[in-house]
Amino acid sequence: xxxxxxxxxASLVGPPxxxxxxxxxxxxxxxxxxxxKKIQEETEFNPTQLDYYxxxxxxxxxxxxxxxxxxxxxxxTFSGIDVISIKKLYESRILKSxxxxxxxxxxxxxxxxxxxxxxxIVIKFHRIxxxxxxxxxxxxxxxxxxxxxxxxxxxxAEAEYKALTCMWxxxxxxxxxxxxxxxxxxxxxxxxxxxxxxxxxxxxE
Length: 205
Prior knowledge:
Blueprint: H1 6-11, H2 15-26, E1 34-35, H3 36-42, H4 47-59, E2 63-68, E3 71-76, H5 78-91, E4 97-104, E5 108-114, E6 120-126, H6 134-138, H7 149-169, E7 177-181, E8 184-188
Antiparallel strand pairs: 1-3, 2-3, 4-5, 5-6, 6-8, 7-8
Helix pairs in contact: 2-4
């Protein structure tokens, strides 16, 4: 079954699923996998409701399930964190709608979006550890110590937003920062032609 675009998945997440995503995010520093028993004990859902909402999030690929000591345990995926960011930016009236992906790197994905005045903006999602550090994780040589990849992604987004704001305020030619949402930075879209679409350049001489 094809994975739905991120914007579609975000639109399918209602308040109950959103609260579960935030619960898993809050516990990601303490638990690599959050036991289902802990989720049941510390949330407002009865067993039938919890199973329904967890299954929905699994189908949307916003959480991951694994057996831990014979019991079900869960963790949030990068897409799940992205959805939290999208909803927080929406609540802050920064992002009205998310459009298509316009760039992808080892540690981030960049999307076009629209603000509440229908101006086109850029949303950059940080995803530390998704590809560039997988080999380091396999050989147990995490260069950042014992921090989770979730925490590293959030901290990287915060650091970039702070640096971007500093440069912009001091007159650097960078996109103006608009807002921060967990692992996502909203910024001004600078119009231009992507290098991949640029026709072959002639000899500068």
